[in-house]
Write a structure and sequence with these properties.
By secondary structure, the protein is α/β, with parallel strands linked by helices. It has 13 helices and twelve strands. It has a seven-stranded parallel β-sheet with strand order 8-7-6-9-10-11-12, with helices on both faces. Helix 2 runs parallel beside helix 12 and helix 5 crosses helix 7.
């Protein structure tokens, strides 16, 4: 089978396809690599695919591929979401799709849990201030809080959220879950959770964690009205997509300093150097690093290549993305308004 690796040369491609993975790939396939200094553009990809490939091995920054979905049989994506790469029509043409979404989800859930615990225990502030000679803090100045027994609200019950819910079990939290889709009653019972409205999650929970894909439907789904419902002292965490929240409204509400936020994603990235978020002392910021952790990149590359081998051999695919899953995944075009 012929494989096209669309990722441009460089450290990122080498991180996902290290020497071990490259050897595995070339032992099993007839491989062509992108040798340009950029990801293939919209006006290039059609001509490139004219050479006839069975599998495309893709990464972040890959252009829209649906118009050419009848020219290859498997899309193997080292990223998570394939929402920007294909649409439902690709599946109608018989295309099969695998991605590292399941791996990304678990790693991002780890990141979300670390942010929640760090914020509640004031780790960023205390670590920063301990660099100052003589700092030891005053009683009550840096009040720390635990996670055990807290009311935790989850907005969006996809793969990341389900991993986070599993990670939260030892903390015996009170879980309230909101999703636009009906949540399986068996899943709720198994996890000691209740389904709740978005308003209820925002207004009653001590910790709120957002895990919503960005689509036309979810763009700015959390605006000023919704943010104003968050209770005093609550912690609001977003590791999903920045544009599911109206960032200007978020800045306005956070400026009142009634609750805290830990933000890993932003409406426009990278975050502007003049963003007011950088100057709010009730906000912790990280540069879209919740997941996947960097040390997972080689593992991701090998796992996706192993699925490519399973595809060649006619075996079940471990990381297959169904049409239904793909339709729920993030599409950055939803923010282009």
């Amino acid at each position: 089978m012929k494989v096209l690796v669309t990722m441009r040369p460089g450290s990122l491609r080498d991180s996902f396809i290290d020497s071990q993975s490259r050897a595995l790939l070339e032992e099993n396939f007839d491989v062509t690599y992108n040798c340009t200094d950029h990801e293939y553009r919209d006006d290039e990809i059609g001509g490139v695919l004219g050479a006839g490939y069975d599998i495309l091995l893709t990464g972040w920054g890959t252009t829209y591929l649906s118009p050419y979905a009848d020219r290859f049989s498997l899309l193997a994506h080292t990223g998570g979401s394939v929402g920007d790469l294909i649409d439902a029509g690709s599946y109608e043409k018989g295309l099969k799709v695998v991605s590292a979404n399941a791996i990304y989800a678990r790693s991002t859930a780890e990141g979300a849990l670390s942010y929640i615990l760090s914020a509640l225990h004031q780790v960023p502030a205390l670590t920063t201030n301990m660099r100052e000679p003589g700092f030891w803090g005053k009683d009550g100045e840096y009040e720390t809080r635990g996670l055990s027994g807290k009311a935790v609200g989850i907005i969006g019950v996809g793969a990341v959220a389900r991993n986070l819910i599993a990670f939260l079990k030892p903390f015996d939290v009170k879980l309230k879950l909101f999703d636009d889709y009906e949540i399986d009653p068996g899943f709720l019972k198994e996890n000691g959770a209740v389904a709740a409205s978005l308003d209820e999650v925002l207004s009653t929970c001590d910790v709120i964690s957002v895990h919503v894909s960005l689509t036309e439907k979810t763009y700015h789904m959390i605006g000023k009205r919704e943010l104003s419902l968050i209770r005093d002292g609550a912690l609001f965490v977003n590791t999903s997509r920045g544009a599911v929240i109206d960032e200007s409204a978020l800045i306005e509400v956070l400026s009142k300093k009634t609750f805290f936020a830990f933000l890993d994603v932003f409406e426009f990235e990278p975050l502007g150097s003049d963003s007011p978020l950088r100057n709010l002392d009730n906000v912790y910021l990280t540069p879209h690093k919740a997941g996947p952790a960097n040390d997972l990149y080689p593992f991701i590359g090998r796992e996706i290549i192993l699925d490519m081998i399973r595809f060649r051999n006619g075996e079940p695919l471990r990381y297959q993305i169904t049409r239904e899953q793909a339709e729920r995944m993030t599409r950055h075009s939803a923010a282009a308004r």
